[in-house]
Amino acid sequence: MTEPATTDSATTDSATTDSALRRTALYAQHAAAGARLVPFAGWEMPLHYGSQLNEHHAVRGGAGMFDVSHMAIIDLAGDGCRAFLKRLVANDVDRLTAPGKALYGVMLNEAGGVIDDLIVYRRATGYRVVSNAGTRARVLDWLAAQNREGVAIAERDLAMIAVQGPEALAKFESVTGSREAAALAPFNAAEHDGWMVARTGYTGEDGVEVMLPGPDAVRLWQDLAGAGVAPIGLGARDTLRLEAGLNLYGQDMDETTSPLVAGLGWTIAWAPAGREFVGRPALEALRASGVGERLTGLVMEARGVLRHGQTVRTPVGTGVITSGIFSPTLGYSIALARVPKAARGACEVEIRGKWHPARIVKPPFVRKGSKVFE
Question: What is the value of pTM for the model shown?
């Protein structure tokens, strides 16, 4: 989904600082752990706890926990929920065949631009939508404006902790005493006692995302820390998500970007042909006229760091880097870039006025700690 600290992707309390920044229920835990706290999407959030590099490797090699309570958690109730979401989400919620099922999708405007990327969960009654912190007001306003089905829309005051890494499930089980999470398939969730435990994440590693009341979140965070799970800030969250080839809202796509250009065509449920969803006519027109560019991966094994906004030069035209980092796992620079659709193989990137050789590859770059592209 969206977001880390160099860019943007619900909450626990409404406390504010003198600068009107909101704080999550875990703020005191971050401060006590020596976190570098920074403004992010209206929140005071941990960028890192001393070493972003060490935090990145902790997730790839063991287990890390993220406070993602700044994400927006929105519950939908009423007889019209399914019809409402079938119209507003380009993926088809009819694929959620039973409570606990989840899907990733995009919510579009009439021009086919991405208002937000989000996860939709089917519940025993109604649905839950988890969207990005930076788009909270826009998403809530859009849902309200489009609500002709009379759906009850309620933003929830819950914390959210992501536990990620090859040891994440074992650590989570050791502190909760529950084997429920390990029994879930990816993109499935279970609810009990006010908790929702979902097999989802934003790192390319195994793990869970847990939505729960603030006081429970503090106890869970402390228990996980006692079990050796490292706290991870927004900085490492960004390097992990980019290695996993995951889009970041506000950089890799936004309201002016079609999902067909942003590498998210797979989230569009074209069938049944009669399903009308917001943005469908614009997407169909673009698909018919031909999509001229695509989001793809770049690697640069020479010295230098790929960054957002740098120009990419290919034999068939120019493009632009939307997200770029030095990959801690691979030891060289990687990026997502929007380039001409026909571009393949070798390319060049302009860094400080000089052109450097790079190569176009198909993301993701890393899965479960290992290189996965050719």
Answer: 0.94
